[in-house]
Amino acid sequence: MGIAERLKVLERTVLSDDWATLTKYRLLWRRRDGREQELIRQAYDRGNGAAILPYDPVRRTVLLTRQFRLPVFLDGHDDLLTEAAAGLLDAASPAERIREEAEEELGLRLGEARQVFDIFMSPGSVTERLYFFVARYDAADRVSAGGGLVAEGEDIEVLELDFDEAMAQLADGRICDAKTVILLQYAALHLFTAAKAP
């Protein structure tokens, strides 16, 4: 039995519709035992996104960003957030959008970006699906200093880190962004191993 056969939306109320949409739902859910239960849930819809980890297997480096994130600051993190370059898809395909983000944020014009998976990042409250990419880079791919779009309020520092240093920052908590942790763990398993050449 699919979800559509077990779920009935009784009421939908838009609570906020600005940068994203926050909607409150009153639902009727058929439980596994057949009984029906009324539920109240909220869903935050900001659209889907894509993230990328550019890596240089010869020099064993990765490119990351550092920037201000208000929600992280409000939760007590009094520092810029180190993270993988990422952005909302808007109307573009994930592959198209992530190449644009790499150029805007990192100053790289990348060739092939390989999608490694897509993940729901916070399925209890947010609709976002994030598409994850990796791409090889070298000095010839640099077309600008990066830094993001000033018109969008972006003030992004580009970091080129030795892969072992990035993993040390992950281990001691300096890197605490979920998408970045996921991509670095992927790189440790698949990109920077002696047994598997990229």
Q: Could you give a quick summary of the protein structure above?
A:
With 198 residues, the chain is α+β, with helices and mostly antiparallel strands. It has helices at 3-6, 70-74, 94-106, 163-172, 178-190; strands at residues 7-17, 21-30, 36-45, 49-56, 61-67, 81-83, 85-88, 114-120, 129-136, 157-162.
Topology at a glance:
Layout: H1 3-6, E1 7-17, E2 21-30, E3 36-45, E4 49-56, E5 61-67, H2 70-74, E6 81-83, E7 85-88, H3 94-106, E8 114-120, E9 129-136, E10 157-162, H4 163-172, H5 178-190
Parallel strand pairs: 4-9
Antiparallel strand pairs: 1-2, 2-3, 4-5, 4-7, 5-6, 5-10, 8-9
Helix pairs in contact: 4-5
Folded structure, characterized:
The strands form 2 sheets. Strands 4, 5, 6, 7, 8, 9 and 10 form a 7-stranded mixed sheet that branches. The chain is of the alpha+beta class. Helix content is 23%, strand content 37%. A hairpin with an 8-residue loop joins β8 (114-120) and β9 (129-136). The chain folds into 2 domains: 3-45, no CATH class; 49-190, Alpha-Beta Complex (Nucleoside Triphosphate Pyrophosphohydrolase), CATH 3.90.79.10.
Strand content: 35-45%
Characterize the main sheet.
7 strands, mixed
User: What are the low-pLDDT stretches, counting only 5+ consecutive residues below 50?
Assistant: none
Query: How many strand elements?
Result: 10
Can you tag this structure with a few keywords?
single chain; 198 residues; alpha+beta; Nucleoside Triphosphate Pyrophosphohydrolase; seven-stranded mixed sheet; elongated
